[in-house]
Amino acid sequence: MAKDFIFSVCLLFLSCVESCEVPTFIDVYVPPAAVAAGYQVGKVEFDACDMSSVRLRSEDPAFKMTANGGIIALAAVAVGAAGRTFSVRVEGAIGVKRVEVRLIRAPVQGKQKTNEGILKRFKRRWSPPPFNILENDRGPYPRDIEELTSDSAAKHDVYYTFSGPGVDQHPVGVFSLNRDTGMLTVHKTVDREEFPSFTLITNVYDKRTNAKTDDSLPIVVIVDDVNDNAPTFKGSLQITTFEQSDAGTVVGKVNATDRDQEGTLHVKIRYTLLDGLDVFSINSETGVITTVTDSLDREVKDKYMVTVQIRDMDGAVTGLSNTGTATIALEDINDNPPTFTKALYEANVQENEADKLVLRIPVEDRDLINTPNWISKFIISKGDENGNFRIDTDPNTNDGLLYLTKPLNYEKTKNMDLEITARNVAELQGTKAQWQKIPVAIAVSNVDEGPEFTAPIVHFNVKENTPNGTLIGTYTAVDPETKSSKGITYYKVTDPASWVNVDKNTGELRVANTIDRESHLVHDGTYNVTMKAVDASSKSGTGTVIIVVEDVNDNMPKLPTSELVLCEDAGSVLVVAEDNDQSPFSSPFIFSLPQDHDGKWAVTKYNDTAATLTHVKDLHNGIYEVPIDVKDLQGFGEKQSVKVKVCECRNGACLAKDSSSSLGPLALLAMLLPLALLLLLALLLIFFCVTKREKMQFDDVADSGGILLKSNTEAPGEAVDSSLIIVPTLGLGSGVKDSFKGSMVNTGWQGNKSSNAMGVIDDGVYQPGFVTNNMQDYYSNQFDTQQFNGGQLVGSGLDFDSRYLAQNSGFHHRWQTNGRYLQQKLVSLGTEDERYADDIIHGYKFEGVGSAAGSIGCCSNHGDSDNLDFLNTLGPKFKTLGEVCKKT
User: Fold this and answer.
1) Are residues 84 and 181 in the same domain?
2) Torsion sign over Cα 46, 51, 57, 62
């Protein structure tokens, strides 16, 4: 191994130590610019040595050694100011030595020294190159290696010490150093593969002062390798390659290693095949195995065992060797097509059979089982144009399985000749063979069959509304064996609408009932009838009759029967007509108004099936029937009416009516409650009729707002004798008097204030009226008792005996107390968070009609007070009561 400044320790046989000297260093002067290629640097010569027994080799690839010891530059080499050093390896009977060659640039001026190229030996110095020992040297031991001499020994009386691996560290006791002389000695053998080198630290001291006289010196002892390890195989020796590979195909590579020193012949391995040379070869340097033939056949031999020898020392007979067995397995390729075991296959099938295994066809294949190269794939390559057969592969046996999938007819086909081709999943390669084919003869057996119709499906065109009894067509069957229709009878299997009659002897089909194309049983204009033919042996066959129903103009356009909504703010409504017929008996439609129309409407075509109906005059809300003439493309149609509802709309829909038109439970209650109130009113009238007192009459003041009705509009009450009602004069403070008639609402009070003060004490007699300025006083004047000396609260006016009130101040006090309580209760109802808070009767201005559903609150039983028609239906008892009151 090349090292800078290598000093070889000469461990020679005893005979060579005294006679052959090898220099350690050679100094050579070279040109200052560079060493040119081919330039002879110098020459190695040994004193008293047989040069023919010595082998020289440069460890620098830039130089080579000649047989006579010359050093030649192989390429241009630059030498720096510090020079350049390389090693020359010397091998022979003297052992292994190294000579350090130091190239020194010659001075630019002056004559070059005459000893250029001559090797010169220099005196050993304190900084020596590494020492060398031979591994596994048998001795004798101890053996001196070299004497170390410090430069300081010339001036001082010194002694030496050293330490490190091999001395006082593992492995201990390999080396020792003479304290006085500096002699380095080895005491035992060393294995280079375990300890390739040792680095020892040496120190020198003055014997008198024990002071160090020189720097510490690291001494490197290199263990030179000997070829004591045979090469070994590395990695697997299992190799695979494809069969039928061409000659020269790389099969694989054998790898080997050697524990000896790298870069030496001890690890230079050569590979050799000891057998199998007729099939394979191996590269001696790389270990790559290749084929020497193209006839490798896995089906003949699927595995080869070859012996490989590996030898170091570049294959020399003196080298160490080892052998191993490499296993070369051949991988399969599809070079064998499947082959049939017979030359012809035959099978019998019965007519009309289907979905049946007909034949099993075995094959053989030499390729690797259960691989794509072995798995078969069968094809019916000829003879099955109608698709009556299919062939599959049995996954367990690799056989072909031929199935009959569609029934055969003996009368049409008595024999069939098929051709079956066998393939593999993988394509063929490495062979000239082709896929094999085999004929298969199929014989069809005859079976007594039922009759067959002349065609499985037949079409007949029939116009709808065709008269009953009209011939549609004839559908017959024949016996497959005799080709005759004799003895065959015909029947219907399905006829959903019973439109067809079948003559059982002739197969004639006639119209039985009116055929309607618009029937739900007609799909896409067709109607199906299933027929059955039965022969004398009761065998049967079926067929289908498709009746294509042709359209006729038997439907006129129809307008919608439901109400059409026309909003007040819209000017028109769309009218859509429908016709069940098809073109040309349907749209486009013609819309028009009859000649005698009322002039309120106009109609305009919108599209083929719709028209726009527009009112040309202002119309009141309500329902109108508008006549419209609508005709189809053939002019077939009539005058029809559509209902149009004109109304106030919201979001395209009519607003609801004031009250519900349905009589639900609340509506019935609303109707019965006024009857109960009228009975109470009748009782009050009786008291009124039998008590003739001065009466107070209220004037009808302005517009009541549509809330409370006038009392003189309540049917029979209008006939009451006017002499019974006395209109008093009311005093207001300073004598202002007003007269009032009609409803109390018309007196002018609203909320908690009154526009007039009514009721004064005049001459000790209390005159009824409003005498307070707030609701509390009003209730004080209204509510205490409902009887005042025979006077009552009658109708919608105030009638009571004022004198009785004046004479009984206690009652008057109670009147006021009750009024306050009622006033507080009304305020509570308006503020409390309870269900009655807003569910009371309020007085509002009249705002038109209300909801069609009516009220559903607790007060809904008051009903509709605007409707007084019920007074005319109260019956004779109420009328008798009215007559009594009149007479009184």
Assistant:
1) no
2) positive
**Domain count for the chain:** 7
**3-state DSSP assignment of residue 341:** coil
DSSP state of 77: B
User: According to the model, what pLDDT value does residue 425 have?
Assistant: 95
Spell out the residues 6+ positions from residue 18 whose beta carbon is closer than 8 angstroms to its own: none
The conformation of residue 778, written as its DSSP 8-state character, comes to H
Whether residue 744 has pLDDT greater than 80: no
- Tell me what pLDDT residue 97 has: 79
Say if residue 665 is preceded by a cis peptide, omega within 30 of 0. Answer: no
Please tell me the distance from the alpha carbon of residue 344 to that of residue 571, in angstroms, as a whole number: 91
**Residues 701, 595 within the same domain:** no
Strand partners, 628: 640
Region of 69 (left: φ > 0; alpha: ψ -120 to 50; beta: rest) is left
* Interatomic CA distance for residues 319 and 681, integer angstroms: 148
More confident residue, 732 or 300: 300
SS (H, E, C) 584-628: CCCCCCEEECCCCCCCCEEEEECCCCEEEEEECCCCCCEEEEEEE
- Starting at the earlier edge strand, list the strands of the sheet with 280-282: 250-253, 288-291, 280-282
At 759-799, the pLDDT tens digits run 444 444 334 443 334 444 444 444 443 333 333 333 333 34
Kindly state the helix (H) or strand (E) to which residue 547 belongs, with its residue range.
Answer: strand 540-550
SS3 per-residue string spanning 487-541:
CCEEEEEECCCCCEEECCCCCEEEECCCCCCCCCCCECCEEEEEEEEECCCCCEE
DSSP label of 11: -
Could you say which DSSP state residue 848 is in?
A: S
819, HSE (Cβ side, Cα atoms, 13 Å): 20
Q: Helix crossing, 775-782 with 809-831: angle to 10°?
A: 130
pTM surpassing 0.85? no
Q: What is the domain extent for residue 358?
A: 339-445
Asked whether residue 219 is assigned to any structural domain, the reply reads: yes
CB 669 within 8 A of CB 715: no
SS3 310: strand
Opening angle at CA 46, ends 40 and 48, nearest 5: 150
DSSP 73-101: ESS-B---TT-EEEEEEEEETTEEEEEEE
Give the domain-ending residue among 391, 414, 445.
Answer: 445
| 877 domain-assigned | no
CA distance 340 to 361: 8
Yes or no: say if 90 and 98 are a contact pair by the CB < 8 Å rule. yes
Amino acid of residue 422: A
Q: What is the distance between the alpha carbons of residues 40 and 71, in angstroms, rounded to a whole number?
A: 6
Question: What gap in Å lies between CA 840 and CA 886, rounded to an integer?
Answer: 36
Residue 21: pLDDT above 80?
A: no
By the 8 A CB rule, do 79 and 103 touch?
Answer: yes
**Which CATH number does the domain housing residue 115 bear?**
2.60.40.60
Query: Phi/psi at 868 (nearest 5 deg)?
Result: -110, 15
Dihedral over Cα of 644, 649, 655, 658: its sign: negative
Q: Is the domain of 377 the same as that of 406?
A: yes
User: Is the pLDDT confidence value at 859 over 80?
Assistant: no
Q: Report the residue count for the chain.
A: 888
Is 867 part of a structural domain of the chain? no
Q: What is the pLDDT of residues 442-483, one digit of tens each?
A: 999 988 778 889 899 999 999 888 899 999 899 999 888 778
List of residues 6+ apart from 848 with CB closer than 8 A? none
Same domain, 615 and 537: no
